[in-house]
Automatic annotation (TrEMBL):
Domain of life per record: Eukaryota
CDD domains: RING-HC_TRIM31_C-V (cd16582)
PANTHER family xref list: E3 UBIQUITIN-PROTEIN LIGASE TRIM
Gene from which the chain derives: TRIM31
Name this protein carries in UniProt: Tripartite motif containing 31
Keywords: Metal-binding, Zinc, Zinc-finger
Amino acid sequence: MLGTFVNKLREEVICPICLDILQKPVTIDCGHNFCLKCITQSGETSCGFFKCPLCKTSIRKNTIRLNWLLANLVEKIQALQASEVQSKRKEPTCPKHQEMFHYFCKDDGKFLCSVCRESKDHKSHNPAQTALSPQRQTQEQIQVLQQKEKETVQVKTQGVHSVRDQVEHEKQRILTEFERLHQVLEEEKNSLLSRIYWLGSEGAEPQLNYLKKLIDSLKTKHEHCHPGSLLEDIKVILCRYDGPPQMYFAY
């Protein structure tokens, strides 16, 4: 009965904007009630006016006033709700003896208080077992579920950390391998550059001198020899030019 009355009262103090119980209730000129925060954020024109979200009446912002009577009513309704919730959380008691349940009769399938257990209705039954009340049983089940949830979260967290560690390890391995490859490539690059530099300076000099001697020899043959003989000599000279590679590209 009290719960129904409190619920009906609560319906009268619901903000039409946020649909929750009024927080710092205000009443605007058109008579409608809102949370202070909700109505001030509902929209304002450049002239300091806003429209009521329910009836669309134009209201000056500076006319908004806190409704202290409504605020007190909201406070009392919340106190009644808290009291009702607290009473529901109390351990149930035996309706006959007004004592808390401590036992369970298997024959009748009922929770028993200490007086019920010794009564003639249950004394001849199988020994009653100590039992928790339904609320306490539910509370313990909730605690078990919460513990399982906590353990699941811990396992999940450990799994995430393990994966992160593996990813970090693989990252470091790849970076190390790339650094090694970079060093090898750098050494190869320097070696090739050194060879190219050598060929462009000292290494090319013997080849140029050798070619110059071949050209001078061909000129002399051209002046004193028969063309057929000159052709044979050119073939021989070209064969000699194609000779030992180390004369041209020494490493």
